């Protein structure tokens, strides 16, 4: 026996590549536009002497502003270092039973990693052939449910009514709805937290608020859910969110007009690119996110992925069952998407 016998071994989550230099980066669903102008000003004007103090463990002004913007009480909001941090705490807090946690088989690939890390039993529920969740499949014994809406990497949205059906019929389980992409045309289930004390809604600043590099995530739910999450968080590290992050987050929330206009720009670009991809022979489920999950009728996804990368255009491809012939294409600026379409046209015409 040696020390490695006591190591907690797990196959980690594989993030998208982070290339440097002059590239067109459409592989990690980042927002192509900068944060709200107020964020820059807040960071430039920040009194650095404040950094000698610990931050507020509950998020301070950021939690207050989230309550104001989303119409909740302070006891209904949890803030963390990106939605991954929030979700990891939620898994550790709520999924502690013997029955399996259930989530889609094609979904955010961090869910099974957390289950493996925390020794949580789980079961993946297959999407149907249209990459859609079948609500009746989630009416079964379980130790918890996680559903991203819109889903990733498919971009498909499930209706609020169908999600409520799942929540309502699983009152003995915590149901987490991961809404990382909801601001790009989806409908949030956030109002339902007033009716269902087993519902936790998770969102992020990383996508629609252009702040993936700042790391802000939040959860909304019944005060008891939030209280239990805080108990677990404070048992690991109370001071997770920096004072600078709190100030940047508040500034982002104060500029709602910029937030709305940026989302509208991305939606408009997405809808235009859908038409162009269709004309080039691609097929994809209808996306309500800031990406498109596409397959070509006659060309392998891996071949397109490799050829695009050779031209410094980064897309996301997984060598996994059911989705190995699909590419996830993040929505960039109009100029970036024009460059992608030009590349695809040349490649499919045999000119590359």
In words, what does this structure look like?
- By secondary structure, the protein is an alpha/beta fold.
- The chain is built from ten helices and 13 strands.
List keywords for this structure.
13 strands; 352 residues; four-stranded antiparallel β-sheet; 14% strand; alpha/beta; seven-stranded mixed β-sheet; 10 helices
Can you give the helix content as a percent range? 25-40%
Percentage of residues in strands: 5-15%
General shape: globular
Terminus-to-terminus distance: 55 Å
Tell me the strand order in the biggest sheet: 2-8-7-6-5-3-4
Task: Please work out how many helical segments DSSP would assign.
Answer: 10
Q: How would you classify the helix and strand content by structural class?
A: alpha/beta
Q: What value does the average pLDDT take?
A: 97
Major sheet size, sense and barrel closure: 7 strands, mixed
Number of strands: 13
Write down the Rg: 21 Å
User: Order of helices and strands, N to C?
Assistant: EHHEHEHEEHEEEHHHEEHEEEH
Taking pLDDT < 50 over at least 5 consecutive residues as the criterion, the unreliable ranges are none
Concise structural overview:
The chain has 352 residues and is α/β, with parallel strands linked by helices.
Layout of secondary structure:
Elements: E1 24-25, H1 37-44, H2 60-70, E2 77-80, H3 82-94, E3 101-104, H4 111-118, E4 122-125, E5 144-148, H5 160-168, E6 175-178, E7 199-204, E8 217-221, H6 223-234, H7 243-254, H8 256-279, E9 282-283, E10 291-296, H9 301-310, E11 313-314, E12 316-317, E13 327-330, H10 334-348
Parallel strand pairs: 1-11, 3-4, 3-5, 5-6, 6-7
Antiparallel strand pairs: 2-8, 7-8, 9-10, 10-13, 12-13
Helix pairs in contact: 1-7, 2-7, 3-6
């Amino acid at each position: 026996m040696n020390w490695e016998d006591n190591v907690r071994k797990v196959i980690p989550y594989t993030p998208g590549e982070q290339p440097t230099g002059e590239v067109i980066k459409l592989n990690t669903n980042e927002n192509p536009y900068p944060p709200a102008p107020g964020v820059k000003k807040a960071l430039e004007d920040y009194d650095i002497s404040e950094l000698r103090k610990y931050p507020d463990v509950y998020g301070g002004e950021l939690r207050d502003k989230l309550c104001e913007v989303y119409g909740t009480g302070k006891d209904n909001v949890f803030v963390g270092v990106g939605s991954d941090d929030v979700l990891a705490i939620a898994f550790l807090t709520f999924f502690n039973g013997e029955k399996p946690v259930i989530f889609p088989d094609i979904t955010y690939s961090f869910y099974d990693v957390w289950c493996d890390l925390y020794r949580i039993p789980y079961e993946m529920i297959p999407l149907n052939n249209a990459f859609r969740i079948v609500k009746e499949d989630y009416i079964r014994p379980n130790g918890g449910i996680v559903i991203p809406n819109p889903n990733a990497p498919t971009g498909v949205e499930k209706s609020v009514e169908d999600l409520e059906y799942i929540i309502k019929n699983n009152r003995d389980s915590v149901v987490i709805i991961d809404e990382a992409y909801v601001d790009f045309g989806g409908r949030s289930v956030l109002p339902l937290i007033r009716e269902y004390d087993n519902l936790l809604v998770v969102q992020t600043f990383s996508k629609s608020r252009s702040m993936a590099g700042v790391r802000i995530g939040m959860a909304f739910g019944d005060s008891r859910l939030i209280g239990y999450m805080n108990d677990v968080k404070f048992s690991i590290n109370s001071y997770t969110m920096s004072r600078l992050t709190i100030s940047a987050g508040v500034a982002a929330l104060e500029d709602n007009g910029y937030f709305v206009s940026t989302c509208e720009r991305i939606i408009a670009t997405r809808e235009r690119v859908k038409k162009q991809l269709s004309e080039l022979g691609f097929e994809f489920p209808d996306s309500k996110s800031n990406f498109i999950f596409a397959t070509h009728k006659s060309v392998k996804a891996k071949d397109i992925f490799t050829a695009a990368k050779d031209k410094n255009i980064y897309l996301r491809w997984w060598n996994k069952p059911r989705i190995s012939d699909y590419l996830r294409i993040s929505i960039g600026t109009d100029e970036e998407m024009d460059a992608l379409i030009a590349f695809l046209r040349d490649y499919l015409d045999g000119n590359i």
